[in-house]
Amino acid sequence: MTSIPTPAVFVLEDGTRYTGRAYGALGRSLGEAVFATGMTGYQETLTDPSYAGQIVLMTAPHIGNTGMNDEDLESSRIWVAGFIVRDPSRVVSNFRSQRTLDDDLVEQNVVGISGVDTRAITRRLRDSGAMRSGIFSGTDLELSDDEQLEIVRAGRDMRGLNLSGEVSTQEAYVVEAIGEKIGNLAVLDLGVKTSTLTYLSQRGFDVHVLPQSVSLEEVLAINPVGAFYSNGPGDPGASDQHVELLQGILREGLPFFGICFGNQLLGRALGFGTYKLPFGHRGINQPVVDVGTGRTEITSHNHGFAVDAPIGEPTESPAGFGLVEVSHVNLNDNVVEGLNALDIPAFSVQYHPEAAAGPHDSNYLFDRFRDLVLAKQATSTEGNN
């Protein structure tokens, strides 16, 4: 006997409604509606802290085919506020699978919806931009249309929202270096992914993962050879304390590397502004050109904000850190995708070079950072002789 599907509804703040079937836990989820365009990697997407506060729609139609496992988790839990898929897999088929996606959604109380026209929703978000939204099932489905819409419109707006405290570690910890050790690396956890820490430790760093609330004195206390700002959710314009901390790090002359949210904060620390994109870049198939080499990389993205810096010739840092160039540009919409400081040892990219679950075109950036740290150490040694 076939069970009767449990109904659910997805509501956008403009009043648009999409009916479907409950997927995962029953109840209510609220968040900014965004879409991710990767054909694979749903487990990495779900456990990426950068998606905190967002209801994520997968544009790939079949989700859950390979189940879930403990090896590919990017953090200790699922972070998305809600999950939207067209066709959840009825059968899990992968030798690495330990459980179904639905099992994890239910266990972690993630409310989702399936059986909706994800292409139509994606086009709506592309035309109107990311917006507040909600998924309602179970007893919350009994609310009237007007009540559901009122709840959605009362939800949090990502503009001006600081989420770092919700996703950062509460206690510092160390991931030890693999191979020959270079020194201690200070990593500010703004929503860092496990694969990022792995790649940094493989480059010889003793990776000290620090809470987002640390002071400059606490950073310097570990005697770091460099500093790193991770990816993370929220509006970079609401992270003044992280900008001030980074400016202190730069004045100390520490080599710096930032990714995603870290790129936006480097932009602010250098004196540039940031702004919200209409619907952002999310997925593992974004084309980015390296301005210096002319080489195009296919890159992994998850960001709704971008740096407002001039593309073309190097420009003087408004905050007094010397010349800065835009190093990478998105080929789809000309958005700034990387910054390179020419007078201090600092650079950043807007995308995810750790790229779990791929592609790995940009993995070399971890080597570039390692080389930057080694060059700084060599200069310091020469200066002491």
List the helices and strands and how they pair.
Blueprint: E1 7-12, E2 17-24, E3 28-36, H1 42-46, E4 54-58, E5 62-63, E6 82-84, E7 87-88, H2 101-107, E8 111-114, H3 118-128, E9 131-137, H4 145-153, H5 164-167, E10 173-175, E11 183-188, H6 194-202, E12 205-210, H7 216-220, E13 224-229, H8 240-251, E14 256-259, H9 261-269, E15 273-290, E16 296-308, E17 315-316, E18 323-330, E19 336-341, E20 346-349, H10 364-384
Beta content comes to 25-35%
Helical content, roughly? Answer: 10-25%
CATH homologous superfamily descriptor of the largest domain: Class I glutamine amidotransferase (GATase) domain
Determine Rg (CA atoms, Å): 21 Å
One letter per element, helices H and strands E, the order comes to EEEHEEEEHEHEHHEEHEHEHEHEEEEEEH
Q: What is the third-level CATH name, the topology of the largest domain?
A: Rossmann fold
Q: Provide mean pLDDT, rounded.
A: 94
Number of domains: 2
Q: Which structural class best describes the helix and strand composition?
A: alpha/beta
Number of helices: 10
- Counted beta strands: 20
What is the CATH C level class of the largest domain, in words? Alpha Beta
The quaternary structure here is single chain
Distance between the termini: 82 Å
pLDDT < 50 runs, ≥5 residues? none
Overall shape: globular
Name given to the CATH architecture of the largest domain = 3-Layer(aba) Sandwich
Catalytic activity: L-glutamine + H2O = L-glutamate + NH4(+); hydrogencarbonate + L-glutamine + 2 ATP + H2O = carbamoyl phosphate + L-glutamate + 2 ADP + phosphate + 2 H(+)
Subunit structure: Composed of two chains; the small (or glutamine) chain promotes the hydrolysis of glutamine to ammonia, which is used by the large (or ammonia) chain to synthesize carbamoyl phosphate. Tetramer of heterodimers (alpha,beta)4.
Organism: Conyzicola lurida
Enzyme class: ligase
